[in-house]
Write a sequence for this structure.
């Protein structure tokens, strides 16, 4: 048997004929940029997340960058003011900070979730700290109660990197439950095709309850244009097109159902993988609000395990093999030691995860891992 890490064609085929009808509707409309499909999706996604505003942009990196640039302008921050973020994230989180002219400060994760360790933020701040970026890695939400309280105490902004957490939930101690994207002052989403809510190309958005921030980002993303041919700042061209918006509207209707299927697969992985012992293989905690964009495990024999699964026809990936502070793009951080991050990224392995996986495929992955020795 062959099991792909993520079969995008199978996923997209499952939305037919609705996807084709939606794309044809855009073609027939004769309007391909900033039309009804974009407006409809922005309203639908804002309502889904539980915020007042959704501003669609070209991709997740742009979403992060535009929020930081907008805050920098609105709040009169200086170049090299600082942003706290985890080192074990996709490089886009750090690139956004750099592109906004701010300085990334890399923080360690928790060993059991790989999420930013909120308890050590006190050790990372100084008088130039302006923002915390909690990355909802793999589809699980960070400790937003602690992060939010900390940020409020020190007057910091919270920008969620929700690029892997479409539909994820967070439960506050008060009993209040909110979705990822409504847990800080702003959030960034990516609609890259492999995401839980994925387009047929690039796309992204910002969600927020801050009207001034939303208006500023919308202007910056459209050439800095306040009204037609009136450009009040040096903006960029970062827009979600009508076709992608129409596709996303179709897929949004099924997002909660698909996420529930991901959870059911994750529960089987969690309960049925026992294989090679805790010293070699550590299963992550099961969290009922997790949307399992990625099902990541740890193994001290990660490379052997990956090769073995490949030989069995099972495709796996590593998210991520090299921490950001060890990348050439950030060579100025090359002497920084973040042992928890570096250990994680030498052991982490992502198993196949898709709402379209069959029970037989899930069982085959489980059986194969349990036979690894």
């Amino acid at each position: 048997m062959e099991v792909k890490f993520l079969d995008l064609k199978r996923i997209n085929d499952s939305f037919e004929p609705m996807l084709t009808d939606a794309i044809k509707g855009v073609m027939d409309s004769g309007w391909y940029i900033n039309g009804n499909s974009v407006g409809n999706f922005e309203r639908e996604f804002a309502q889904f997340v539980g915020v007042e505003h959704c501003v669609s942009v070209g991709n997740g990196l742009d979403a992060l960058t535009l929020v930081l640039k907008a805050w920098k302008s609105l709040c009169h921050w200086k170049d090299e003011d600082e942003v706290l973020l985890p080192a074990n994230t996709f490089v886009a989180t750090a690139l956004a900070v750099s592109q906004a002219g701010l300085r990334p400060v890399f923080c360690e994760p928790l060993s059991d979730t790989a999420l930013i360790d909120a308890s050590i933020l006190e050790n990372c701040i100084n008088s130039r700290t302006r923002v915390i970026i909690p990355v909802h890695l793999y589809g699980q939400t960070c400790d937003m109660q602690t992060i939010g309280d900390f940020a409020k105490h020190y007057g910091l902004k919270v920008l969620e990197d929700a690029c892997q957490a479409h539909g994820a939930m967070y439960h506050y101690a008060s009993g209040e439950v909110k979705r990822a994207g409504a847990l800080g002052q702003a959030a960034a989403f990516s609609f890259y095709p492999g995401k839980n809510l994925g387009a047929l190309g690039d796309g992204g958005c910002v969600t927020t309850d801050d009207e001034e921030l939303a208006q500023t980002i919308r202007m910056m993303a459209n050439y800095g244009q306040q009204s037609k041919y009136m450009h009040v700042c040096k903006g960029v061209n970062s827009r979600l097109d009508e076709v992608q918006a129409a596709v996303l509207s179709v897929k949004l209707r099924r997002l909660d159902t698909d996420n529930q299927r991901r959870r059911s697969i994750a529960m089987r992985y969690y309960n049925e993988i026992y294989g090679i012992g805790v010293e070699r293989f550590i299963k992550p905690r099961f969290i009922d609000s997790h949307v399992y964009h990625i099902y990541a495990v740890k193994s001290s024999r990660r490379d052997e395990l990956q090769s073995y699964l490949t030989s069995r026809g099972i495709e796996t990936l590593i998210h991520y093999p090299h921490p950001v502070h060890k990348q050439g793009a950030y060579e100025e951080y090359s002497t920084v030691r973040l042992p928890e991050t570096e250990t994680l990224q030498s052991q982490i392995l992502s198993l196949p995860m898709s709402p379209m996986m069959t029970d037989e495929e899930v069982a085959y992955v489980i059986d194969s891992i349990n036979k690894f020795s």
